[in-house]
Amino acid sequence: MRPCSGDTLYLLQIRYKPVLRNFFSPLLALALLAGGMAAPAAYGQDKLFNDPPKQDGGWQGLADVLEALAPSADTSIPLTPSQITDRISGMISQGRYQEALDIIEKRDAQREAEGAIGTDVQLLFLKGRALAGLNRHDDAIAVYHNMTVQYPELPEPWNNLAAEYIKQGKLDMARDALSMALTADPNYATAKANMGEVQLMLAKQSFDRAAALGIAGARDKAAKTQAILQK
Q1: Where are the alpha helices (DSSP H) in the chain?
Q2: pLDDT at position 208
Q3: Distance between CA 184 and CA 198 in Å, rounded?
Q4: Lowest mean pLDDT among 58-67, 168-177, 192-201
Q5: Which residue has the higher pLDDT, 18 or 231?
């Protein structure tokens, strides 16, 4: 079963990407300080990732000047929302699920403190992936299900919801979720492949039941279906 990693979740990024939210440059900082205004804060993003300090460069030299002019100004370069989600996605791909989840929760708190409008659906999707990686499957299902209610036109949450149902042996519910994914995007290759696997699983289940009822040849068909699934 192939859950979506989020790399193809382009619809979420296009439709909900904040506009001009992090438009911040050295020239803007100088202009603001020269005019007696405080430079915009980096939204506390230095607390999201514990990166080692970088060597002094052109930006750091300017940051030092700004710090001397206005020590209270935050001269760090804020990450854009897409950069944040890329970093978190990378952590999940590396199996750093708890670390990723901690950062997601911090980012949620930041957005709430900033009074951000709307839901960061990309971040919500990553939360589902992190929870699934931690084997918190009921929590992951709750996240994905919530996404399918709010954004039924997005196929990726439906696909990952199906993957979670598979882990719990809920094949009929997985099939229904994949049908919704393919309704949202009939050309969604991952969901098509997963639907094929689910249909094979359901076929094996039916052959097993038929064999238990004494139907000739059913046990052999179940074994052949299992062999296909294991390839």
Answers
A1: 10-16, 26-34, 58-69, 81-93, 97-114, 121-133, 137-150, 155-167, 171-184, 189-212, 218-230
A2: 96
A3: 18
A4: 58-67
A5: 231
Task: Round to whole Å and give the CA distance between 124 and 188.
Answer: 21
* Tokens at 226, concatenated: 């299992």
User: Cα(73)–Cα(44) distance, rounded to whole angstroms?
Assistant: 12
Nearest C-alpha neighbor of 42 from the set 24, 57, 19, 56: 24
Residues 6+ apart with CB under 8 A from 49: 79, 87, 103
For residue 3, the model assigns a pLDDT of 74
Task: From residue 125, give the alpha-carbon distance in Å to each of 47, 96, 142, 147, 201.
Answer: 21, 16, 11, 8, 27
Q: Do 194 and 163 form a contact (C-beta atoms < 8 A)? A: yes
Question: What span, in angstroms and rounded, lies between the C-alpha atoms of 10 and 81?
Answer: 14
Residue with tokens 């791909």: 93
So what's the pLDDT on residue 82?
Answer: 85
The pTM of the whole model exceeds 0.85 = no
Q: How far apart are the C-alpha atoms of 108 and 2, rounded to whole Å? A: 27
Q: Answer whether residue 217 shows pLDDT above 50.
A: yes
Q: What is the pLDDT of residues 43-94, one digit of tens each?
A: 444 456 665 555 444 445 444 544 454 444 444 567 788 888 999 999 999 9
Tell me how far CA of residue 48 lies from CA of 58, 74, 103, 109, 154, in angstroms.
24, 15, 6, 11, 28
